[in-house]
């Protein structure tokens, strides 16, 4: 069977990774969390004592980081397990700066394309349908209201024991939406051929079903729940 790529893009905390992970498991595809790669880069910049708002300083790490996404969800940066650290508020509030630097994006996009080359994948991010995998068989643009996204992210943080207030989460989501959609290179936007999916009023199973239906229509591939 030919490899199939499913691109799921959308703003911060829209639930893309939850959906992408489940859809990948159902279809037997590999899930690739590109946001985790930008987060790992940001973590490494901060760990090195560099300022993520300083593009030249941040770019000195290009070519020096080996970022691995393991099948069990573990994220490694030069062999260190950063799975939890990359979800901390300090990384979340700086990652959009790192993601706006063209040369860092070019390096991570190359890794992402290589990962999608030999396997069927579900890849989530901001620019997958528009830039990373423009020929993806299925493109979904997953959105939800700011309030709804902030509520979901707040609950997720609580479950993971990450201390944040609702106000901080709302401010972070709005700030990242702004920076991600206003950067010059590969900004967040809906690809012309992407199917929009507003999940504000949907639960996880409903969103998964909607995505599977689109995948079946576009590719004929069916998963069994
Ligand atoms: O999906 P996430 O919240 O983990 O993503 C973290 C940041 O990385 C997000 O603010 C924007 C950036 N990002 C990006 O610019 N392009 C991607 N393909 C994925 C994430």
What attributes does this structure have?
14% strand; 225 residues; 9 helices; three-stranded antiparallel sheet; binds 2'-deoxycytidine-5'-monophosphate; Rossmann fold
Task: Tell me what you see in this structure.
This protein is of the alpha/beta class and 225 residues long. The protein has one domain (5-214): P-loop containing nucleotide triphosphate hydrolases (Rossmann fold). Helix content is 49%, strand content 14%. It is built from 9 helices and 8 strands. It has helices at 16-27, 34-47, 55-59, 89-99, 102-117, 128-132, 146-160, 166-182, 204-219, and strands at 5-9, 30-33, 67-69, 75-77, 80-81, 121-125, 138-143, 195-198. The protein has a 5-stranded parallel β-sheet with strand order 2-6-1-7-8, sandwiched between helices. It has a 3-stranded antiparallel β-sheet with strand order 3-4-5, covered by helices on one side. A hairpin with a 2-residue loop joins strand 4 and strand 5 (80-81). The longest helix is centred in the C-terminal third of the chain and has 17 residues, at 166-182. Bound molecules: 2'-deoxycytidine-5'-monophosphate. 2'-deoxycytidine-5'-monophosphate is lined by residues 12, 34-35, 38-39, 95-96, 99, 125-128, 176, 180.
């Amino acid at each position: 069977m030919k490899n199939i790529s499913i691109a799921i893009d959308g703003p911060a905390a829209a639930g893309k990774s939850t959906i992408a992970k489940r859809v990948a498991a159902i279809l037997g595809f590999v899930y690739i969390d590109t946001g985790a790669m930008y987060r790992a880069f940001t973590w490494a910049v901060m760990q090195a004592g560099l300022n993520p708002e300083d593009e030249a300083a941040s770019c000195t790490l290009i070519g020096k980081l080996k970022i691995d996404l393991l099948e069990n969800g573990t994220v490694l940066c030069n062999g260190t397990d950063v799975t939890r650290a990359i979800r901390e508020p300090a990384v979340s509030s700086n990652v959009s700066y790192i993601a706006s630097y063209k040369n860092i994006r070019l390096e991570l996009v190359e890794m992402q394309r290589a990962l999608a080359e030999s396997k069927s994948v579900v890849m989530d991010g901001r620019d997958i349908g528009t830039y990373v995998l423009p020929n993806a068989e299925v493109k979904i643009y997953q959105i939800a209201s700011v309030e709804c996204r902030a509520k979901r992210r707040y609950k997720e943080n609580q479950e993971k024991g990450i201390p944040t207030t609702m106000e901080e989460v709302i401010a972070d989501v709005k700030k990242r939406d702004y920076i991600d959609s206003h950067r010059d290179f590969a900004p967040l936007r809906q690809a012309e051929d992407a199917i929009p999916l507003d999940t504000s009023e949907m639960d996880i199973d409903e969103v998964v079903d909607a995505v599977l239906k689109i995948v079946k229509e576009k590719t004929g591939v069916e998963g069994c729940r």
